[in-house]
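User: Quick sanity check before I run a bigger batch. Here is a single chain. Can you write out its predicted 3D structure?
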Amino acid sequence: CIHPLQVATVQKVFSPSEEELSWAVRCVIAGRKAEAQGRGAWGLDGKMIDAPVVGKANAIVAKAEACALDVHGLMKKWESVEPE
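Assistant: Done. Predicted structure follows.
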């Protein structure tokens, strides 16, 4: 149990960082495009990405949404990202 005055601090500590959320959003967007192309593995920032990594990215995005972070704004910002 936490005091209501502690909610903001707890949310900040346990929510994804800006950098982590940006990576996750880019991974999710590129993953959708890779899946549409029938690709099981692909690259992002020179690193191999496959289903378990996309699953982790989806979990980060879901956590960020639950924390009321601006996921929609990042989706718009990174909509042009492509899988390598």
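The beta strands are 42-44, 47-49.

User: Great, the batch can go ahead then.
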